[in-house]
Amino acid sequence: LVHNSGPLFSSCFTINTRGSLAIFGSVVSLIAGLFFGSVSAYGAYRITNDPHDYWISLIAAGVLTVVMGMRFRKSGKLMPAGIMAGLSLLMVLRLLIF
User: Fold this and answer.
1) Is the peptide bond before 51 cis (omega within 30 degrees of 0)?
2) Domain boundaries in the chain?
3) What is the pTM of this model?
4) CB of 18 within 8 A of CB of 32?
């Protein structure tokens, strides 16, 4: 059984890219983005080895959905909080449905 983990690795790339772009913002955003991107990449790697081992990715995407959703609700800004919350929610749904 081959599991398509392309969307998972794309999500990791997006999170890491957002984290590295935070150099122009705060150090906390940089660290959080790189941390969650790395955790998501590790979770995607685990899923490629065992499709039923999706918990790490699910927890990382779930935490990002909640945190970025709260930031979006507070600020009302679509970029970056709203987009990251939406992408993370899509990843949670993908992990739970497929």
Assistant:
1) no
2) 6-97
3) 0.76
4) no
Please write the tens of the pLDDT for every residue from 26-66.
777 778 888 888 898 898 889 888 888 899 999 999 999 99
> Around 42, how many Cα atoms within 13 Å sit in the side-chain half-sphere?
10
Please tell me what DSSP assigns to residue 25.
S
Per-residue burial over 49-80, b = 16 or more CB atoms within 10 Å of its CB, e = otherwise: eeeeebebbbebbbebbebbbebbeeeeeeeb
User: What radius of gyration, in Å, describes the C-alpha atoms of the chain?
Assistant: 13
Q: Rounded to the nearest 5 degrees, what angle is found at the Cα of 48, between the Cα atoms of 46 and 51?
A: 85
Tokens of 48: 């490629």
CA 82 to CA 4: how far, in whole Å?
26
Residue 60 CB partners (closer than 8 Å, separation 6+)? 36, 39, 40, 43
Q: What is the CA angle 48-32-39, rounded to 5?
A: 15
